[in-house]
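Sequence in, structure out.
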Amino acid sequence: MPPKSRSSVASGPLDALRSACKPLKLETVSPEAWQALRSSEAAFSLDLEVDVDHIIAGHLQALASAFEPLALGSSAEAAEQVWEWLGQSVGEGKAKGMPRARALLAILAQALGRPDLLAVAGASYLALLAAEGSEKQWTALFQPACFRQILRALRGLRRGDLKQKKEKAEAGEDGEAEDAGAEEEVDSGIISSVHARELLNKVAWFCAVRGLASSSEAAALAVDELATLVSRPADDAVAREAASGLVGLVARAGGPGEMRRAASAVLRATMPALLMTQERYTSFSGAIPRPLQLARATALNLACGLVRNHPELLNPSPWTDSKDDDAAGGEDADQPPKKRGRKEKGEGKKDDESDEEVTQAAHEIAEVVAADGAADGLAVEGEKKVRRRRPRGQANDDPIVALLELICVLTPDRSEWRSYSTDSIITLLSEVADVEHKAAIAARSSALVTRRLVAKTKDPADAATQEEAEGVALPLADDGGVLVSTGLNAPAALTSAGVERFVSFLSRILESERVCTRVLGTEVAVLCLERSGRLAQGGADGARAELVRRLLVALVRRCSDAVPTVRGRALGGVSAALQSLAKCSEGTEGLLRSVVLEPGHPHHVDLPGLFRSAARDEKPTARRSALNLLDTALPLLQGSLKLNSEAIGSFFDLNLLAGLSADESILVRKASISSLSLLVRLCPCAEAHSLWVANVLPMVLDVEASVGERALDELEAAVLQPLAEQAQADPKNRKGLSIQLPAVLRDIDSEATEYLQRGLKSVAKRNEGKLPKPFLASLVRMLKDCVKQPLPLREWPLGMWAMVEEVSRSNTSGDFLDFDTALAAWVQFSKLRLSTGETPSGLGSKILLVLEHLLPLASADRLDELMSSLSSSLSSFTAPPSLIRAMTSCIDRIEVTWKAKKLYAERAKDRAAWRTSFLKSIQAMLGDACRGQEVAGAHGTDGSRRIEAALFSLGELAMLDSSIISEGVVTQVQTLATNTVYREGCRVETCAAARGQAFSALGKCCLKKDTLAKKCVELFVLYLNPNESFVVRNNVLIVLADLCNLYTSLVDRFIPSMTDLLRDGNELLRKQAAMIIASLLSEDFIKLRGSILFRFLYVLSDPSESVRGFVECVFARILHQRNATMFAQNFLDVVCALNGWMGLASFRGAEGNEDFSLVGSPTRRAVIYRFMLSLMTSDQKFNVCAQIVTTLLASFVDAEEATPLPKSAAEPAGQTLSDGLTLLCCKEMRICFTTQRAGQDDEDVEGGGGGDEKKGAADAARGVLSSILKRNMCDNIIPVLVQLKSLMEARHSPFLKTLRHCLREILRDFKDDLPAMLAGDPQLASEIAYDLQKESAGEPDGGASGAAALPVAASQDVAPGARPLPHLGGASRRMSLGTMMRPPSTPTQTPAAPTPLMDLEAPSTPCAGAEASQIPKPRRSSGGGFGTGFGAAALPRQSLAAAGAARRRSAAQDLLKASQDSGEAVAAGGKRRAGGVGGGKRRKAAEAEGQQLQQPIHAGGA
């Protein structure tokens, strides 16, 4: 076939173009129109005065169709013919001599100015630019005005501003308001939405086919417009089309450098969409609006596509040190830094530095937020800060990593935004790792294939050896080559280069001073750990382990962060890191063991310390994370590290789980249930079982339904299911129980038994009143095994009988257990008890309770048999008191059953005779005891046991029938109770147990006869004497409590005698007294006021953790709920009472409570203060603070009736004054002097979802509060403190240091207003300003105004050798009450007269168990971590004193000079003094205080 001629090849496109141009009438275009087009580069409208009225949309569509084949792969000859024809002149009309291309451009430009032709004209123009060969005439063809008009037409595809629901509702009422809400001008009237979408498709097609590499300005315009459509699209389709156009722009950008710049520009332009910050505000309530989420997804897909399509973007550009830049830097070193984005005159308009701007911006922000950058860049030199300059030269990071860095530092401070940003970072980072891994495999495979093919002629053995060393050989195609995959022994980088650089940046922002940045960094690190398998090089175990180790080191430091959110999430990251290390099987066992079990290893992490610190944290999120850490570590210790149960049980401080199970947070309580159950499964030791019984079982009655449900689930899993599984198995032929009780129930007490029964009842209730039949069968089989074999009583499981008793209570139909079986069990129990003398606690009572529930099913003969057995057992006086009560109750129930069955009449005579005989036996025994014939000697003897049984039986009979109470019986009981038994003129001692039972029997008689109660109440109070035994006082206390319930007015006047037991030396008696007083208070039998309040608050500092915890719960959950102002109203009275000071006439709480004074125990007072402050609101704290200043401190400077200033801190007045000053400046009271919350630093992002609305409201509230605080400070607080300071200076008071420290801390948040607030004492203002300035510069405190006035305690949160980060602590440097009121560690002289609690109240001994208390804990320093040890050394005494003296001397000299120059007087403390004299006095005071600092400064206690 002959080849086609040139004319035939070009005839198709050329003919089509000729036909399309003919209706356009190119000859009508004048040369002036072309000149107007060239000069309209910056115009926003196109009017070239070209007639286009004859042109319709079809003509322009035909023109576009004629140009499109030239861009879709047409032959070069055809394109050359077309451009040759367009270059020829028109030849006629106005356009004579003008090239056809210019005339065509003028017509298209004029058509672009008409809305009806804009879309098709734009498509035609873009097709013209996309044609093959257009780049040769690009200068003439590309007209910025035309391209700008096309882009402007796309604005109709933008959406308006998003509105809140409230704004939308308002806009719906008024149609005009809806249009007015748009932020940007939307030219939706230029073209229709349909035409705009078609034009957008053409723009995206043009970018993909041709691109804008020849015009950087046009590329910038296109990137800006398309990125706006990605950020604010009308719908998702518009965003995707715009994103495809941006991808095309990058792909057609040109060489590697141009492509990198284009990608940087695209990433920078779409970053608002990626961050979801394209709106004016981010105060959207609830979830993030869906349009923002869709825009983010499109931008993220765009960035991931750039990474996949252009792997070269991940190659960092080498850093170059330009000599010109250095010279310029040297010349302009003194010039102020230029603002970013500005250009000097004469610079080009090209935006070819976009990649540098993106990466340098990342460096700049990262350097500002990085801790080391902030620490190095802060210097005090002549009151000026030295700014760090950015390094000159090309940026080192690639655009993708720079984008990741910018996301980290520019994400809005809201939890929803942070979560999406974290997901974006991890998605991009995973894409980077995948791309780099594929590129590394491809490069390595290519090199190995080449090497293999070249080595074909070499020795095969050598080649095989080399292959084995390099990796695993894979067969290639027919040429005989071999692909070698990455093997375990293949040398490879631990992680990809991009991941490596980002992880380094992540480690820096985790040390940032910005809270939001640390929070985001922590979340990113946690997700990196979860995706470590993908981020590591090919998922290799070694690479993954190294990545996990680096992130673990960074996260451990953040576990002691000042912000609770950071602490909690960092602990979650540590848990994820441990899980990741456990999954890395190859070569990581040693690393895991060293991290967890080897304290001396550099990589060791103190997991028990982390758990201990987090479990005692003040925030629920951190405590919840502590349980997550425990849940992660337990399987790790058992599985990977293969520790036994004993080692696992001793690894963590499991006692902390008891406190977490009683936590106020619902999430913490639920998590503690899961943790305890996991501990029982993995570590089946006695300690774990005890913890489960003591903490999981009680939570079946939790007030929160979800917590109770979780506890019931664990009860079923730990008790019901194992028993049901054993019942379904074949019984074993062995001696003993065929079914074994679950390990958790093998050793339970009466309290746990009660919770177990309640739990079974709740399980049956949620299962429609039924329990699993296999479970019930197992209980019956265990019961029969106990009776038939028979087993010794010690082997009868109490837990089984408790469950049988509960099932019998609810199941009275008889299908569970018959009466005969239960009766046989009681008979067998009675025989074994009499024969062996064993009486397991609670066992007989449970059997009798089972019989009580089954009495309606029993026959008359069986009832007679049971009654006979019970009567004989009671008459023998050998049963213990607990069994006597059960027997008397069962006898009463049998009589009721007889009456119900009409069988009692025939047995009434016999029952009355037995009762009379039994009472006579009791009276005879008691009579012999009162005459000294029946000796009740030491406890445990037969005589003592018989008398105790007789007394207890008498009390039970009196409760059932009051007619047996006679004067003779009362006299006998009273004689034994008061220990007044005489025989032959000699007193016979009665044992304490018998006396206790006598008081109990006497109390029961009083409950039945009010006249007897009136006679005996004073007798009961008399025997609360501390000289009496514990048993007697305990029983008397219980009797008085019962009498108070029945005869409140009779006992009310003796309540102080009962509360005296709150400070008894016996812990059990203190707890019993606390429980009884709490019961009376909760039921309103007595009121919490006066001495009852002070004494009950005293128990908050009890050395026993159980007593203290109980009283804390009573206050927090009962008493404070009723009266939320109780602490605020009585705070100052409590301070005076605890210090035993009665110097204030209106506050004499110490009167009558001298024995409850804590004047020598500042640590215990601090515990009480902290608990009270933790339950106060901000307003209440403000009132308390004002009361301290205006009442307590003002009393010492009162002009009329001034209270004498104490001379030492040991006296009660001195302790009260010291406590008042300490309370004013402690961290717990900070709310009174600052606009932030107590204990809060500069930023507290916990919760994170408050939004701008909440932040705006908080800012407004802080503004109002700040003005109120400032006025209150100026009018009420500062004058009193300044007057008190002057008085102390005049009298050389030892409290001057504490007062100056208090002043400094109070004025810290008002340091900008010091001259105004201390207008009467400018010297004091300058000294405080100087102290604050030195602190901010990082210098150690010294002098009288520093913290050296207080004991210096070692920090437990900063690891040795860790670089401190003082700026992370926020503006507040306040210490907690526990630190400020900690006594010196040096031993003090023991008082001569010891008291029961002397060793607990000694100043050198802090309150035992205070660490485990539920009261709020002090905050942690944000720096440091957990390493091989804790603590920091105290400051040297000599240098501290010298620094303080020098500083005060310098301040005094400066003020003296200023006063002498001005000739003005200095007013201080309301007195006018000459400048020179005042300066001299202050200089002497500074020297004196410097000498006082030479005294030893004791380090705080543990």
